[in-house]
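Hi everyone, sorry if this is the wrong subforum. Our group has a chain we'd like a structural model of before ordering constructs, and none of us has done structure prediction before. Sequence below.
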Amino acid sequence: MGQVGIVYRLMPTGVEVDMKAMSEGARAALPAVAKLRGMQIQDIAYGLKALILAIQVEDMGGVADQVEESLKKVPNVESVEVIDTSLI
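Answer:
Right subforum, don't worry. Here is the predicted structure as C-alpha cells:
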C-alpha cells in the first residue's frame, strides 16, 4: 500500500473565529493514522479566512473519512471540504 496526500479546507463559523485557536484544535483532533504535512490560513473574502490542511495517510479504506469526521468536531468549524487528493 502507498500513501495518500489529502488537502482539506476548514471553514469557520464566522469572521470572528480565532484562526490560531482553530488551527491548534485541528492539529489536536487529527487521529494517529494522519500525519500533518502543512497548514496555512487563507484569506477568502470580507475578513473571512479558511484553514488549509495538508494531511498524509495510508492508502486504505475509510481513513480519509475518519480524518474528515475528526476535523468536523473541532470547535468553530462550520464545514470540512476535501479540495485535493493524490497518491504520493
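For your construct planning: The two ends are 11 Å apart (CA to CA). The mean pLDDT is 94.
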